[in-house]
């Protein structure tokens, strides 16, 4: 029988707040939860882990340069990567959520060289779910009727939500997304910018970044790693690029269309890419290269 022990790591001043989270988890009466261990010690939190979900990062504050943000996060994720290397199982599945998620994930993977690169991923499922839902609302169907959207690249405003391989089930027939929506201008314009800017729009409205939708996306992502994606469907995950798929440069954590099986993933190969898609896929890769080069320079210090 599957059951969980939850290890919750936070910085020392936040331990009293973490107690509140522990109480809420207890109050959920979760059927599979056996034990909760709150701690401020990496050697406790990372010991023998099967799954690590790294949500904590340094958020950008007013007046902060992108460079300062990266520097602070390189320190955090280098430390957590090193702890994974030392204490976790070599089979651990690591999901990085804290922003800038792709580059934080790359730094974590580089700091844990004995854990296979395939075990690391970053969250673009939230963007994937956002894209799916935007199309569903436009067509007046449930989100589950929309399949195979793709998020390419960075979890940032340069990401490319691609619907060229997406289908929509309308009144029992499976239509190509462009035929279902019947508004190419929207799909190539406002749809893309809405998904790209959704995180910022949520922050503007809530004065806090997304919480419930991010938690749901984390659950979707991990469940797919564990249980596999449904037959004929794919999802989006930020994974390590070896330079062998879709002309994406190597040594980046880049979001691709993937299928999950046996606790692993495979990039969905052979999808046709038109010039419109190509330029957007390249633009987000360029941003990731810039982030990587700046982060790796900090890593060497
Ligand atoms: C989101 O996509 O909702 C977040 O990544 C936004 C943010 O910057 O926290």
From TrEMBL:
Q: Which residues form a coiled coil?
A: none
Q: Choose any GO biological process term that the UniProt entry carries and state it.
A: tricarboxylic acid cycle
Q: Per UniProt, where does NAD(+) bind?
A: 10, 73, 97-99
Looking up CDD domains in the UniProt record yields:
MDH_cytoplasmic_cytosolic
Q: What NCBIfam families does the record tag this protein with?
A: MalateDH-SF1, MDH_euk_cyt, PRK05442.1
Q: Which residues form the signal peptide?
A: 1-20
Write the Enzyme Commission number(s) for this entry.
Answer: 1.1.1.37
What sequence ranges are listed for the domain Lactate/malate dehydrogenase C-terminal?
A: 124-298
Q: Organism's domain of life?
A: Eukaryota
Task: Identify the enzyme class.
Answer: oxidoreductase
Looking up PROSITE patterns in the UniProt record yields: MDH
The family classification in the record reads: Belongs to the LDH/MDH superfamily. MDH type 2 family.
Q: What is this protein called?
A: Malate dehydrogenase
| Lactate/malate dehydrogenase N-terminal domain segment(s) | 6-120
What does this chain do? Catalyzes the reduction of aromatic alpha-keto acids in the presence of NADH. Plays essential roles in the malate-aspartate shuttle and the tricarboxylic acid cycle, important in mitochondrial NADH supply for oxidative phosphorylation. Catalyzes the reduction of 2-oxoglutarate to 2-hydroxyglutarate, leading to elevated reactive oxygen species (ROS).
Protein keywords: NAD, Oxidoreductase, Signal, Tricarboxylic acid cycle
Give binding positions for substrate: 60, 66, 99, 130
Q: Which reaction does it catalyse?
A: (S)-malate + NAD(+) = oxaloacetate + NADH + H(+); (S)-2-hydroxyglutarate + NAD(+) = 2-oxoglutarate + NADH + H(+)
Q: Record the organism.
A: Nothobranchius furzeri (Turquoise killifish)
Does NAD count among this protein's keywords? yes
The active-site annotation reads: 155 (proton acceptor)
A GO molecular function annotation here is: L-malate dehydrogenase (NAD+) activity
């Amino acid at each position: 029988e599957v059951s969980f022990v939850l290890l919750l790591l936070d910085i020392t001043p936040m331990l009293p707040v973490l107690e509140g989270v522990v109480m809420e988890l207890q109050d959920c009466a979760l059927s599979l939860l056996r034990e909760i261990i709150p701690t401020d010690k990496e050697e406790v939190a990372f010991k023998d882990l099967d799954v690590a979900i790294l949500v904590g990062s340094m958020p950008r504050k007013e007046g902060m340069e992108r460079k300062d943000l990266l520097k602070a996060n390189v320190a955090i994720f280098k430390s957590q990567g090193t702890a994974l290397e030392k204490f976790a199982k070599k089979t651990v599945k690591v999901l990085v959520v804290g922003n800038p998620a792709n580059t934080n994930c790359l730094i974590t993977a580089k700091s844990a060289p004995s854990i296979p690169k395939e075990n690391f991923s970053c969250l673009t499922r939230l963007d994937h779910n956002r894209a799916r839902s935007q199309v569903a609302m436009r067509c007046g169907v449930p989100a589950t009727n929309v399949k195979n959207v793709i998020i390419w690249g960075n979890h940032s405003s340069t990401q490319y939500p691609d619907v060229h391989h997406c289908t929509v089930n309308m009144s029992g027939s499976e239509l190509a997304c462009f035929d279902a929506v019947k508004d190419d201008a929207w799909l190539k314009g406002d749809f893309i910018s809405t998904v790209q800017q959704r995180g910022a729009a949520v922050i503007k409205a809530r004065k806090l970044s997304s919480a419930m939708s991010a938690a749901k996306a984390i659950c979707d992502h991990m469940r797919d790693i564990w249980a596999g994606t449904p037959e004929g469907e794919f999802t989006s995950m930020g994974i390590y690029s070896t330079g062998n798929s879709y002309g994406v440069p190597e040594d980046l954590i880049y979001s691709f269309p993937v299928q999950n099986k046996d606790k692993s993933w495979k990039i969905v190969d052979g999808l046709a890419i038109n010039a419109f898609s190509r330029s957007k896929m390249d633009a987000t890769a360029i941003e990731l290269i810039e982030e990587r080069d700046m982060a790796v320079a900090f890593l060497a210090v």
